[in-house]
Design brief:
The complex is a heterodimer of chains A (420) and B (209). Chain A has 420 residues and is of the alpha/beta class. Chain A contains 13 helices and 12 strands. Chain A folds into 2 domains: 24-91, Alpha-Beta Plaits, CATH 3.30.70; 112-418, Zn peptidases (Aminopeptidase), CATH 3.40.630.10. The relative contact order of chain A is 0.11. Chain B has 209 residues and is of the alpha+beta class. Chain B has one domain (7-208): Nuclear Transport Factor 2, Chain: A, CATH 3.10.450. Chain B has helices spanning 7-24, 98-109, 132-149, and strands at 31-44, 48-59, 62-76, 85-91, 116-120, 156-167, 174-184, 190-200, 204-207. In chain B, helix 1 crosses helix 3 (132-149). Chain B starts with 6 loop residues before the first helix and ends with a strand. Classes of the chains: A alpha/beta (420), B alpha+beta (209). Chain A binds chain B through residues 122-123, 184, 230-231, 235-236, 238, 253, 268, 273-275, 310, 348, 350-352, 356-359, 385-394, 396, and chain B through 3-7, 14, 32-33, 35, 60, 121-126, 157-160, 181, 183, 185-190. Chain A: It is an enzyme of class 3 (hydrolase). Chain A: It is found in: Secreted. Chain A: Keywords: Carboxypeptidase, Disulfide bond, Hydrolase, Metal-binding, Metalloprotease, Protease, Secreted, Signal, Zinc, Zymogen.
């Protein structure tokens, strides 16, 4: 039922001084001249303070009356005494107004209508990011598509954006953000990357040349359950939200759950710890879906997993001191990527293998991807170095994404120019 | 000699910075590490591991300047409950914060109701400007906790001030009861810690609990 104009007018009034608690809106449909007269009599009874939303017009036309609470009993009695039937259209006008108010407030924070009006300088909810993805696809159907590669523990869809100018299973670059849910600058950067890819392609610059021969896959919210939890309950949540039997503690570290040195030193076997590796490799659907995707695609040439914070660019291994066979090349690419990153705002990064630069970590993403043969496997730890840590101010999102993008381009270009 | 990009040097540097924040930090001075320039490690028999560091620091309230500092951090063998020994020498002068400190002190002393706040910064990284000095005092307090509780296998950062409550005192010190969240990098745990800081513009800060 919609009475938008009248309701809006009431809202305007309600927000000022009057209240409509207990007021009801009654509808009468006069079926005889007597009934019509009974209703018209009501119009003359000023002391009842009736407000005719639909005035009496004739037989068969509805008459809607807003009746203030004190007048309810006399009005109903008057109608019943004359045998005039009525229905209650609105049981409590104030309740409806309150609902409308809430709805209006909510719609003033409405989702933007295009990816050009999306606010890249703010942190967003999962719904807003998923809506962004759909808009991006709708605006660029020849370049972008959305794939669902699986479902999280709490049954949230795991979406990957595919950027492709054609071909069949072209050599590809994979980028994921938000695998650790509290690292908010990463999901926010992922959104910016998505838009940047589209813009570069439209302007035939930047990664447009890479897209001529390669596809880009981007998973922005890699751990949606954890992300939702950081928004509703615990801003510092890192892991997934799975429950494995035998423990009251929740969650597995998705960056210890991969099948590379699984369970060895550098992860915890305690379900209550932040680096809990899980009961077995790929126990987490968030991880398994990527594993299945990578294996079935079979042609991914560069894999980048993005974290925060510490300002580091890392390559394998984390689970062993043994240097990766391609260590020298990876080290050189890292040096170039970090130099490109620094060139924009002077942000300083360190780089090296995981185990020498940050700590021993087993069951990690890029150790697995590297062992699968994806030579250019890198992990970023984005801004900052601890001043804000996970709570990076939103105004640093875009600068962080911009500088990181320069490093990502170095990696992508190197992969393209050194096809294997 | 240690590569600055390797983690053992970075962990020792974090201890030195925590110690320095405790000693020299205040509501008008927030020291942070700009760059770890050099690091050396020496194993001393029957004592432990000694790190010699050359650090470049900046004040977050005065980022155009940096100050160089040398530090020595000794992690003791065996008893893991002993805090590392730290010595720090600042080369040159730190910017004076006398005026800002006195202003802050007067402002807090004149509050009718005891200051109380939570979640600094908030989830989006925002800090209300009037709470910036409270956060910097949390750096002082957590600097102490980090120094006293660090080992070669830990690296702590202050993740967030979960809660702070001022407690009015009959003497001249300001007292702030903090609950801070410390992020430990190696285990990735975020650990709540209660710490009480007493602070005075001339005497500086000290942890009482």
């Amino acid at each position: 039922m919609r009475l938008p104009v009248l309701l809006a007018a009431l809202v305007a009034v309600a927000t000022c001084t009057e209240t409509f608690v207990g007021h009801q809106v009654l509808r009468v449909v006069p079926k005889s001249d007597e009934e019509l007269q009974t209703v018209q009599e009501l119009q003359d009874l000023e002391h009842l303070q009736l407000d005719f939303w639909l005035a009496p017009r004739g037989l068969g036309s509805p008459v809607d009356i807003r009746v203030p609470f004190p007048s309810l009993q006399p009005v109903k009695a008057h109608l019943e005494a004359s045998g005039v039937s009525y229905s209650i259209m609105i049981e409590d006008v104030q309740a409806l107004l309150d609902e409308e108010q809430t709805e209006m407030l909510r719609s003033s924070r409405q989702l933007p209508l295009t990816t050009n009006t999306f606010n890249y300088e703010a942190y967003h909810t999962i719904d807003e990011i998923y809506s962004f993805m759909d808009m991006l696809v709708a605006e660029n159907p020849n370049l972008v598509s959305k794939l669902e590669i699986g479902r999280s523990t709490e049954n949230r869809p795991l979406y990957v954006l595919k950027f492709s100018t054609g071909g069949t299973k072209r050599p590809a670059v994979w980028i994921d953000t938000g695998i650790h849910s509290r690292e908010w600058v990463t999901q926010a950067s992922g959104v910016w990357f998505a838009k940047k890819i589209v813009q570069d392609h439209a302007n035939n610059e930047g990664v447009a040349s890479i897209l001529e021969t390669m596809d880009i896959f981007l998973e922005i919210v890699t751990n949606p359950d954890g992300f939702a939890y950081t928004q509703t309950t615990n801003r510092m949540w890192r892991k997934t939200r799975s429950k494995h039997s035998g423990s009251i503690c929740v969650g597995v570290d998705p960056n210890r759950n991969w099948d590379a040195g699984f369970g060895e030193a550098g992860a915890s076997g305690n379900p209550c710890m932040e680096t809990y590796h899980g009961p077995y490799p790929n126990s987490e659907p968030e991880v398994k879906s990527i594993v299945d995707f990578v294996k079935s695609h079979g042609n991914i040439k560069a894999f980048v997993s993005i974290h925060s914070y510490s300002q580091l660019l890392l390559y394998p291994y984390g689970y062993t001191q043994t240097p990766a066979p391609d260590q020298q090349e990876l080290h050189e690419v890292s040096a170039k990527a970090v130099a490109a990153l620094s060139s924009l705002y002077g942000t300083q990064y360190e780089y090296g293998s995981i185990i020498t630069t940050i700590y021993r970590a087993s069951g990690g993403t890029i150790d697995w991807t590297y062992n699968q043969g994806i030579k250019y496997s890198f992990t970023f730890e984005l801004r900052d170095t601890g001043r804000y840590g996970f709570l990076l101010p939103a105004k640093q999102i875009v600068p962080t994404a911009e500088e990181t993008w320069l490093a990502l381009k170095v990696i992508m270009e190197h992969a393209r120019d050194n096809m294997y | 000699e240690l590569p600055p990009s390797h983690f053992p040097a970075a962990r020792a540097a974090a201890v030195a910075v925590g110690y320095l924040r405790y000693l020299r930090g205040g509501p008008g001075r927030g020291l942070q590490l700009r760059e770890l320039r050099r690091a050396r490690r020496q194993d001393i028999d029957d004592v432990g591991h000694k790190y010699d560091l050359e650090l470049e620091l900046e004040d977050v309230l005065d980022r155009d300047r940096t100050v160089t500092c040398t530090a020595e951090v000794v992690y003791h063998l065996g008893n893991k409950n002993t805090a590392p020994d730290v010595q720090v020498t600042v080369q040159g002068e730190l910017r004076s914060t006398e005026e800002a400190d006195q202003e802050f002190y007067n402002r807090i002393r004149s509050l009718e109701k005891e200051l109380e706040a939570e979640n600094i910064p908030d989830s989006h990284g925002n800090i209300p400007p009037e709470l910036e000095p409270i956060l910097l005092l949390a750096w002082v307090a957590s600097g102490y906790v980090i120094w006293r509780n660090s080992t070669e296998n830990t690296k702590f950062h202050l993740a967030q001030v979960k809660h702070v409550k001022q407690v009015k005192r009959s003497d001249e010190d300001l007292q702030f009861d903090y609950v801070v969240l410390l992020h430990e990098m190696v285990s990735q745990e975020v650990i709540p810690w209660e710490v009480t800081l007493l602070w005075h513009p001339r005497r500086g800060g000290r942890v009482s609990r």
